[in-house]
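Batch manifest, entry 17 of 40.
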Amino acid sequence: MKEPTRKTPSEIDLSRYTALPALIDPHVHFRTPGGEYKEDWKTGALAAIHGGVTTVCDMPNNTPPCTTLERLEAKRRLIDRQLKMVGIPLHYGLYFGADEKHLDQIPLVADQCVALKIFMGCSTGGLVIESDDALDEAFERAAASGLLVAVHAEDEAILARARIQYRGSKDPATHSLVRPREAAIRATEKAIALAKKHQARLYVLHISTREELDLIRSAKREGVQVYGETTTHHLYFTSEDYARLGTLIQMNPPIREKSDQEALWEALRDGTLDTVGTDHAPHTLEEKQRPYGEAPSGIPGVQTLLPLMLDAVFRGKITLERMVELTHHNPAKILNLPVSDDQVFVDLDVEKRVSDAMMLSRSGWTPYRGMTLRGWPVYTALNNHLFPVSR
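Output type: structure tokens
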């Protein structure tokens, strides 16, 4: 893979562009180790810098899952080798996976990861904590170690009942019923209660329902240290889009109703939500085009985070200042990331139509294809080197 062209900022006239802090994507799956045919850190890094993202935080549901200190260290060595191969010194943090057999590892990794990731319901990769006792212990150990707890909040018992109810369905829209809103609401309630009990810092990921937002608002008023993330796909797609895109927009938790989407935008504006991530979870297009029930959940997104949010600024859904808080300042504080001077230079007036051909992720496709967005990155400054990113 060819190393990207780079120059120093002083070599190029950047005066006609708007300079913003480079983005932090707090939620990616770069599929390494174990799923490199979908993505690795070489292709993931290229996609990131072409989207104005210079810091990513990667999830632990790998093969094998990142649930021990030894695996965490091995994963870091693998990432560093791949980034060196492509010549992109991407900044990154790693989540540590919680499972019931390795809770004793939590204190050992507290200073080497950005958060403890708990899957409260099965998603992709088999990591899950179903036992209430184990869940309580995970929160207790994380709090004692000063480690942020990040949760995939879907209740496994509710999911299991729904899977039985809708078994055999081939309609992609069924996915929002197989993973019902009640599962997300119940799990978020439980996570907030455990955070209060153990005085843990809690980060609720990919919030999708208006009821979860009410729970987050209430907890914040009570003084609970709780933060909320939503994703670009929950902001841009609703259940009405299954008819057009089918399994291409199948993800966990699933897309919801128009009223949920509107509530998410309002929560971004009023401070209930703290970050916007992508849950960048690439699969091959061949995999995603399989019938419902065979197609995997997850979509790519790291390269389109900034154009989507800049378009939202243009359309008046959010201010540019608030966008910067959500995509840079807040994730840096919540995840305790090192200070970075990286910047992205954007043309706020240019319009482009999103296409698969633009995408540098190994998956090579995007569910946003065909959308015309206003506001695009032109250069990304990473470690005082400029990477041209127009495509």
